[in-house]
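[09:14] KT: can someone run the structure on this one? pasting the chain below
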Amino acid sequence: MSGPTHAGPTRRGLVAGSAAFGLTAGSGRAAEPATGRTLLITHPAFAGHETGLGNPERPARMRAVDQALSAQDFAALRREEAPMRDDAQTAILRVHSPVHLDRIRAAAAGTRAGPVHLDPDTVVSAGTWEAVIRAVGAGLRAVDAVMDRGSGIANAFCQIRPPGHHAGRDTAMGFCLFNAVAIAARHARVRHGAERVAVVDFDVHHGNGTQEAFRSDRSLFYGSTHRMPWFPGTGAASETGVGNVWNAPLSEGDDCGPFRAAWTDRILPALDAFRPDLVLVSAGFDAHEGDPLGGLRLVEDDFAWVTTRVAEVAHRHCGGRIVSMLEGGYVLDALARSSAAHVRALAASAS
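[09:31] RB: done, structure tokens below
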């Protein structure tokens, strides 16, 4: 089965070879007491989404983050398994077309003879359907938890795969099948009556699917730093939607200086002015300097810094409600350290 194609270099081609910069990690999932106000949602099924030899978006990503978040300083995290929810497909249809939903379902059902490539990057295998439905379910559950003040949950990190922010209404691309963060944002609007929902994105690649889903809706905000020109070729500062899209492109080799300036001078003031009722984060860690093909030079402290700054805006406007969802990050050591720094900053902001 062939799926949508896109021009220019593939995302897989840009990050291929990252597997050589890996981490040997055990499953490491801990079962510590649930005493904190930060919720971690994940599931073993995410490692069941098999993408084939040489694909950097691979099950080992989950094991690397598992290991990092099993450290003692994360003992207070509340931990839940990502659910298979009855409302997941209804939620998907708020962002994606019925044709796209059926295409992904049919591709997953057709994997008995082996993985199916929807494009050179994007693979569907026998474990994919459960993984993508649980990824959507993780976002829905996290939104429900942080919007319910009786839950005691201030914020959440969804450790999921496959990533989602490239998936458009009718398009799977860049490893992404369903846009879980955009689906979670729509869920907050429909289920919880949130009037203004924001997604901020610091993946090295622009979240073209999220921008597509939001660009004509003033109740939704999208702000992104990303390398440009780079896959997928979108994300210019001139792409502003209806005044609700704030792109801050970075150049190859940029480090903490341009990155922090982009957030301080452009995205955070716009987010503050938007006054969100909920902030979602597309947390991609492939802008880390350890990724030889990401092309940016961020370190763990930069991800902690931006998480803290976003949390400050969330505290001013929505009681600190944040739902973060894992996107990219393909060099395992860097992914593990960066995820830990991000979750540590979320937990500190919730205390």
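[09:33] KT: thanks! The chain has ten helices and ten strands.
[09:34] RB: yep, looked fine to me
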